[in-house]
Automatic annotation (TrEMBL), chain A:
Protein species of origin: Ruminococcus turbiniformis
Annotated V-ATPase proteolipid subunit C-like domain residues: 14-72, 96-154
Topology within the bilayer: Multi-pass membrane protein
Transmembrane residue ranges: 63-85, 92-114, 134-156
Compartment(s) of residence: Membrane
Keywords: Ion transport, Membrane, Transmembrane, Transmembrane helix, Transport
Family: Belongs to the V-ATPase proteolipid subunit family.
Name of the protein this chain belongs to: V-type ATP synthase subunit K
Main localization, broad class: membrane
Family matches, as Gene3D superfamilies: lithium bound rotor ring of v- atpase
Coiled coil: none
Pfam family, one: ATP-synt_C
Automatic annotation (TrEMBL), chain B:
Subcellular location: Membrane
Sequence similarity: Belongs to the V-ATPase 116 kDa subunit family.
Membrane topology: Multi-pass membrane protein
Organism: Ruminococcus turbiniformis
InterPro entries: V-ATPase_116kDa_su
Keyword vocabulary terms for this entry: Ion transport, Membrane, Transmembrane, Transmembrane helix, Transport
Keyword match Zinc: no
Residue spans crossing the bilayer: 364-395, 407-427, 458-482, 494-518, 524-547, 581-600, 606-629
Protein name: V-type ATP synthase subunit I
Length: 161, 673
C-alpha cells in the first residue's frame, strides 16, 4: 500500500470527523444557549421545568444527525466491524465531501435553532398554554438540518467503496 | 368531524327563582354567559363586586391554610399525582362541608395565626442565638457585663481595636490621663480585630480614663446584661429551648389540622364556585321582579335546558340562532379516535365561523406520519403500553391529559406497525444479540423493506405520501369553496392548480431524474404524455389569467396571475418537506444500531452482559425520548405548515361555560337526561 492509498482512508475518516464534530458543536452551542434561557425561567417558576426542558432539547438533534452520518461512514470504510477497506484517495475525498453538508449545516442550524429555542422558552415563560406553538418555531430551523442530513446520508450511502 | 352548532339561549325568569336557576345552570356547565342587551331604565345590573371579593378572599384564605398545611405535613403524593386528576366527591359530602363552612374558615384563620406564631418563635430563636454570639467574647468575665460601682471605684467593660494589650493601655493612660493612677485593666479576650477588656478605676478618674481610652478607639458594648455572661448565656439557652419547644407545639397543633385537609379543599372550591356565580350575577340585567340571562349553548343541550327550566319555573326561555355578526364560541365534536387529536388542532387554533373542523381528516395522517417517523416496533409497543396502562389506571385524570395519552397510544400502535414493516426492533437488536451470544446472526425480516438498504425507495414513498396529504388539503379547500357557493373560486384556486400539479407530476414521472431516484424507469403511452402537457399548460395559463380576477386593470391582472404561478416553488418545498419522514425514521434506526453496536463491543462474559444491559436500557431510553420528541414536533409541523397552510386558518374562540370551576375536587356534574 503506497502513501497515496493510505491517504484515502484518512480523508474518509476526516469526513466522519467533520460530520460528528461540527454538527455536535452546533448542537452543544444551541442546547447551551437554550439552556441559559431555560434556567432563567426555572428560577422564577420551577413548575415549568418539564416544558422548558423539552424546548431546550430541540437543538440537540443536529448532533445526533452528525453521529448518524459519522456512524454510516465508519461502517462504510470498515473501521467498525474490522477489516479496513482499501479506500482510494478519490473515494476518500468523495466521502469527505459527502459529510460536509451535515457538518456545516448542523453547526450553523444548531446555533440558530438554539437562539430560536431560547425565544420560544420566553413564550412558555409568559404564556405556558402556547407550548404547542412555541415548540414549532425551533422545529422550522431544524428542517434545514434534516435536508442536509438526507443529502449527506444518501451521498455516503451511494459511494461505492 | 364537526364543530358543535351553537345557539343563543335567553332566559327571563322571576327573581325569586334566581338562585335556583343560576345554581342549576352552573352545575350543568353548558352555557357561556354573553349578554347582548345593556342597561336601560327597566333593567339594571346588580353590583356584586363586594360579595364576590368576599368569596374570593375566603377561597384565598382557605388556599393559604392548605399551603401552610402542606408545609408542615406534606401530603403523600405518588409519582403519578398529576395524572390522578381531581378527587371525585358526591353531593352529600359537598353539602356537609357547606354547612360547616364558617367553622372551616375559622380553622383556616387559626392555621394562618399559628403559622405566624411559629414564625415569631423562630425569629425569637434567631435573636437569642445572636445575643449568645455577642456574649461569647465576654464569657470569662465573672461579673455582670455593665458599668458597676463600689463606694470609691467604678468598673466598666468595653472593646478596643485589635492589637491592644494591657501594657499599651497603661502607656496610653500614662500619657493621656496621668492623674488616674491605680487604674486596673483586665483583658477579657482577644480577637484579631477587637480586644475585649474591663477597666476599674476611681470614681473621680472615670471620665478622664474613659476619654483617654476613647481617643484610642474604646467603645462600650452595645448591649448590657444584669448577670455574669456565663449565667446570662445559660439563661438565653434556656429561652431558646423554650422557644423551640413552643414552636414544636405549634407545629404539632397545625399538624393536627391535617385531618381537615379534604374539607378545607372542598370549602375552598365552594367559595370559588360562589365567587364565579356572583360574577355572573353581576352581569345579569335585572328589573324589579325579573332577571335575564343569555348566552351560547350547544344545540344538542339547548332544548333539554329549555324544557327543564320552563317546566320547573315560571320563566320565558328563548332559543335562537346566533346572528351573522356574532362569533360564537367553538366546541369540537369528533369520533372517539379523532377526538384525541383535538388538542393538536386547538394548539394551532380552533376553526372560525365558516371553517370546518379539520380534526378527523388530520387524525389519520397524524398517526400515519408519526409512526413512520419513529418506525421501531419495540419503541411503538413501549409507548402504546405505557400510555394504555396510564389511561386505564387513572380514570379521573384531566380530559386534556387523557386525550394526549390516548393520542400517543394510537401513535405508538402506528409506530409498531411501521416498525414491523421496516424490520426495526430496538434498531437491530435481534441481529446483535444473536450474533454476540449465540454465534449465528438472526435477522427478523422486514415485512416491506429495510429503509437503510434502500433509502431512495423510502424517499420516493415519503414524497408520495406528502403529495397525497397536500392534495387532500387542497381538496378540502375546494369543498369549502363549493359549500359557500363560490364556484369561480373553486375552479380558479383549486381545479386549475390540480390540473397544473397533476400535469407536472405526470411529466416528471417518465423523466430521467425520476428514473435515477426511483431506480426504475416509468414509460407512459404517448397519449398520457400529451395529456400531461395539456393539463400542465392549461393549468398554468388558467392560473395566469384567472388568479388576479379581482383586478380590473388587465396588465395588473396578468402580473398577479404570474406571481401566483410562482407559488409552484412553494408546492415544491412543501413536497420536499416530507423527506423528513425518511430522515427521522433513519435517525431512530441508525442511532439505535449505534447503541447496540456499543454494547456488543464489550467482552462476552458476565460483566460484559451486565454492561450490555445497562447500555441497552439507558441508550434506548434516551433514543426513544429524543425521537419521540422529534416525531411529535415534526408531525405537528407537517400538519400545521404544509397541510393547514392549504385551507385552514383557525382563530376561533374556545367555549368557556359558566360552570363549577373547582381546583381540588370535582362534584359529579348533573346532567339532564
Amino acid at each position: 500500500m503506497n502513501i497515496a492509498g493510505e491517504l484515502g482512508i484518512v480523508y474518509a475518516l476526516l469526513g466522519a470527523a467533520v460530520a460528528v464534530l461540527f454538527a455536535g458543536a452546533g448542537s452543544a452551542l444551541g442546547v447551551g444557549i437554550a439552556g441559559q434561557a431555560a434556567a432563567g425561567v426555572v428560577t422564577e417558576d420551577p413548575s415549568k421545568f418539564a416544558k422548558v426542558l423539552i424546548i431546550q432539547l430541540l437543538p440537540g438533534t443536529q448532533g445526533l444527525y452528525g453521529l448518524l452520518v459519522g456512524f454510516i461512514t465508519l461502517s462504510k470504510i470498515g473501521i467498525l466491524g474490522g477489516g479496513i477497506a482499501d479506500v482510494s484517495v478519490s473515494t476518500g475525498l468523495l466521502i469527505l465531501a459527502a459529510c460536509l453538508p451535515i457538518g456545516i449545516v448542523g453547526l450553523i442550524s444548531g446555533i440558530a435553532q438554539g437562539k430560536t429555542a431560547a425565544s420560544a422558552i420566553g413564550i412558555v415563560a409568559k404564556k405556558p398554554e402556547q407550548f404547542g406553538k412555541a415548540m414549532l418555531f425551533p422545529a422550522m430551523v431544524e428542517t434545514y438540518a434534516i435536508l442536509a442530513l438526507l443529502i449527506s446520508f444518501l451521498a455516503v450511502n451511494g459511494i461505492q467503496v | 368531524m364537526a364543530v358543535l352548532k351553537m345557539q343563543r339561549i335567553s332566559i327571563c325568569a322571576l327573581k325569586k327563582d334566581r338562585k335556583a336557576i343560576l345554581e342549576k345552570l352552573q352545575s350543568l356547565g353548558v352555557l357561556e354567559v354573553d349578554h347582548v342587551i345593556g342597561e336601560d331604565e327597566d333593567f339594571h345590573r346588580m353590583d356584586t363586586t363586594g360579595q364576590r371579593a368576599g368569596f374570593e378572599r375566603a377561597a384565598a384564605s382557605l388556599d393559604q391554610a392548605l399551603e401552610i398545611l402542606e408545609k408542615y405535613v406534606p401530603e403523600s403524593k405518588s409519582m403519578f399525582a398529576s395524572l390522578e386528576g381531581k378527587k371525585q366527591i358526591d353531593p352529600e359530602t359537598e353539602r356537609k362541608v357547606q354547612e360547616q363552612r364558617q367553622e372551616l374558615l375559622k380553622t383556616a384563620r387559626s392555621i394562618a395565626d399559628l403559622d405566624r406564631d411559629y414564625a415569631e418563635q423562630l425569629a425569637a430563636v434567631n435573636r437569642l442565638t445572636n445575643s449568645i454570639a455577642a456574649l461569647a467574647p465576654w464569657l470569662s468575665l465573672d461579673v455582670p457585663l455593665k458599668s458597676m460601682r463600689t463606694k470609691r471605684t467604678v468598673m466598666f467593660p468595653g472593646t478596643m481595636p485589635g492589637g491592644t494589650t494591657a501594657e499599651s493601655v497603661y502607656t496610653l493612660l500614662g500619657e493621656k490621663a496621668p492623674e488616674a493612677e491605680g487604674t486596673e485593666v483586665y483583658i477579657v479576650s482577644t480577637e484579631p480585630s477587637t480586644v475585649y477588656l474591663a477597666v476599674i478605676c476611681f470614681q473621680e478618674d472615670a471620665a478622664a480614663v474613659e476619654d483617654a481610652l476613647r481617643s484610642a478607639g474604646f467603645a462600650r458594648p452595645s448591649q448590657t446584661w444584669d448577670e455574669a455572661p456565663a449565667e446570662e448565656k445559660s439563661r438565653l439557652e434556656q429561652q431558646i429551648a423554650d422557644c423551640r419547644e413552643n414552636a414544636d407545639k405549634i407545629a404539632g397543633k397545625i399538624a393536627s389540622f391535617a385531618v381537615k385537609r379534604d374539607e378545607l379543599k372542598i370549602a375552598a372550591d365552594y367559595y370559588r364556585v360562589r365567587a364565579d356565580k356572583y360574577s355572573v350575577l353581576g352581569q345579569l340585567p335585572q328589573s324589579a321582579r325579573t332577571f335575564v340571562i343569555s348566552g351560547y349553548i350547544p344545540q344538542c343541550e339547548a332544548s333539554k335546558v329549555a324544557d327543564y327550566l320552563s317546566g320547573k319555573y315560571d320563566c320565558m326561555v328563548d332559543v335562537e340562532e346566533p346572528k351573522e355578526d356574532e362569533e360564537p364560541p367553538v366546541i369540537l365534536k369528533n369520533n372517539p379516535f379523532s377526538a384525541n387529536m383535538e388538542g393538536v388542532v386547538e394548539s394551532y387554533g380552533l376553526p372560525t365561523r365558516g371553517e370546518i373542523d379539520p380534526t378527523t381528516i388530520m387524525s389519520f395522517f397524524y398517526v400515519f406520519f408519526f409512526g413512520m417517523m419513529l418506525s421501531d416496533a419495540a419503541y411503538g409497543a413501549i409507548v402504546a403500553i405505557v400510555c394504555g396502562v396510564l389511561v386505564a389506571k387513572f380514570p379521573h385524570m384531566s380530559p386534556g391529559m387523557k386525550k394526549s395519552l390516548k393520542l400517543f397510544f394510537y401513535c405508538g400502535l402506528s409506530t409498531l406497525v411501521w416498525g414491523v414493516l421496516f424490520g426495526g426492533y430496538f434498531g437491530n437488536i435481534v441481529d446483535i444479540v444473536s450474533q454476540k451470544f449465540f454465534g449465528t446472526t438472526v435477522t427478523v425480516p422486514a415485512l416491506w423493506f429495510i429503509p437503510l438498504n434502500d433509502p431512495m425507495k423510502l424517499l420516493v414513498y415519503s414524497l408520495l405520501f406528502g403529495v397525497i396529504h397536500l392534495f387532500v388539503g387542497l381538496g378540502i379547500k375546494g369543498y369549502l369553496c363549493l359549500k359557500d357557493g363560490k364556484i369561480m373560486d373553486f375552479f380558479c384556486d383549486v381545479v386549475l392548480w390540480f390540473m397544473l400539479l397533476i400535469g407536472l407530476i405526470l411529466m416528471l414521472l417518465p423523466s430521467e431524474i425520476f428514473a435515477s431516484i426511483a431506480q426504475t424507469a416509468i414509460e407512459f403511452p404517448a397519449a398520457v404524455n400529451t395529456l400531461a402537457a395539456v393539463l400542465a399548460a392549461a393549468g398554468a395559463i388558467g392560473i395566469v389569467l384567472m388568479s388576479g380576477r379581482g383586478n380590473k386593470n388587465p396588465a395588473l391582472r396578468l402580473a398577479l396571475g404570474a406571481y401566483d404561478l410562482y407559488n409552484i416553488t412553494g408546492w415544491l418545498s412543501d413536497v420536499l418537506s416530507y423527506s423528513r419522514l425518511l430522515a427521522l425514521g433513519l435517525a431512530t434506526g441508525v442511532i439505535a444500531s449505534v447503541i447496540n453496536q456499543m454494547g456488543s463491543m464489550l467482552p462476552n462474559n458476565v460483566i460484559g452482559v451486565i454492561f450490555f444491559i445497562v447500555i441497552f436500557i439507558f441508550g434506548h431510553a434516551l433514543n426513544l425520548a429524543i425521537n419521540l420528541l422529534g416525531a411529535y414536533v415534526h408531525t405537528n409541523r407537517l400538519q400545521f405548515v404544509e397541510f393547514f397552510g392549504k385551507f385552514y386558518e383557525g382563530g376561533g374562540r374556545p367555549f368557556s361555560p359558566f360552570k363549577q370551576n373547582t381546583k381540588y375536587a370535582e362534584i359529579k356534574e348533573e346532567t339532564l337526561s
